[in-house]
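Bug #77: duplicate submission created two jobs. Keeping one. Sequence:
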Amino acid sequence: AVSLASAGLLIFRQTLDDPDFPTRGSRIYVRTEVGLSTQSTGGGMHHEVADVEVAFPLHERVSLRLGGYLGNAGGSDLPLHRRFHVGGVVTSAVFAPTHPRFLGLGPQERSGAAAQIARGALQLEYRQGRYLVVGVDAGGASESWGFDRDAYTVGWGASLGFASIVGPVTLTVHGRSVGDAGRSFRGGRTF
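Kept job's structure:
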């Protein structure tokens, strides 16, 4: 028989004025979990995530959005879905805490037991309810915790979008260089 036990702590606070095109406010998500198991010798796992975003207006129609994502996990019984899978323009609907978006990478292109991402974007409301967002992400995923800037990836993206009754509608061009740019279309909320 296998015995399992786990305990976790979640802190979430969100004051963004809009979930898709925020101009002010913040979102803080912090989660930690520890698990013990008799599955293997010294069995168990740990998992920590911190995901933060802030937005503030620079001008009547221009906002600065900054963010950071830190994740660390380990242990002999760490499940695959607790590893970090980084990439894509849209955060995973099912595994949002472990599958963060990253401009310039394909969906879940990089994976590891640790992840660090820094984000920055300028957002322009060029017409009422119509937005242009230009941003950059830097960071990546690796098998161990550490800040190795030489191993980081830098990606960029530019989106045109608007809010609709079904959620945000965006067209994004993104890549790691101009020559490898890809496109992504999003129509509505992720569930």
